[in-house]
Design a protein that fits this description.
5 strands; five-stranded antiparallel β-sheet; alpha+beta; SH3 type barrels; 27% helix
Length: 102
């Protein structure tokens, strides 16, 4: 019986600690290089969620699907998941990227 109890305790401890490990490892670092443009930053964020601050002050959040010379395609807009948006790059004043969790 003692062996079974020890194994059960080890399994319970592993079950509690293993799922937390990936959460701690999710910190990325935002890096920019000399000469970077909004286009270059967005290209590196393809398939990731970003927020774009537009020249009108409006903010759009979604997943970067594609970046072309002139526009970015955002899918799964926050609060409007059934919608996509195409935003002219020259209308973007800031790109907001989540890089860490609490």
């Amino acid at each position: 019986m003692t062996g079974r109890i020890a194994v059960a305790l080890l399994v319970m401890i592993a079950a509690v600690h293993v799922p937390l490990a990936p959460l701690r490892a999710q910190t990325d670092k935002l890096e920019i290089a000399e000469g970077d443009t909004v286009k270059a930053v967005l290209e590196r964020q393809t398939s990731k969620r970003v927020s774009l601050v537009l020249s009108t002050g409006q903010e759009l959040s979604g997943i970067v699907s594609k970046v072309t010379r002139d526009v970015v395609h955002l899918s799964e807009l926050s609060g409007r998941e059934l919608f996509d948006a195409v935003v002219p790059l020259d209308r973007i004043t800031a790109v907001v990227i989540r890089v860490r969790t609490r």
